[in-house]
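Sequence design from tokenized structure. All designs in this work follow the same two-part layout: the structure record, then the generated sequence. An example of the structure record is given first.
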């Protein structure tokens, strides 16, 4: 009877040891520490910072919509008329004669 629970505990320990790559002791702990640190700095921390920035931006826009300014530059229009399509605003011969 007592050997069955000991066997179960041994099987659980064996399963955990095999699932962690067979490492034991300090090297196992160090590898999990390195993996956890990398995961935190590559995935968790950037996503938390992005959420925080989005919340600050939404709060600033909600508090005073006139004070909030988007920090992107507008795309300049290279044409003189300001239109997206069409010809440039050149004076015609008739307009030049009137002047």
């Amino acid at each position: 009877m007592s050997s069955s629970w000991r066997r179960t505990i041994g099987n659980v320990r064996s399963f955990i040891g095999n699932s962690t790559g067979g490492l034991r002791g300090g090297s196992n702990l160090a590898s999990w520490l390195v993996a956890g640190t990398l995961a935190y700095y590559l995935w968790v921390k950037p996503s938390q910072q992005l959420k925080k920035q989005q919340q600050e931006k939404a709060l600033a826009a909600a508090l005073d919509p006139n004070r909030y300014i988007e920090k992107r530059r507008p795309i300049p229009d290279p044409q003189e008329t300001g239109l997206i399509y069409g010809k440039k605003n050149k004076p015609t011969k008739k307009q030049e004669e009137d002047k």
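The helical segments are 2-19, 26-63, 93-98. We note this feature because it recurs in several other targets discussed in the main text.
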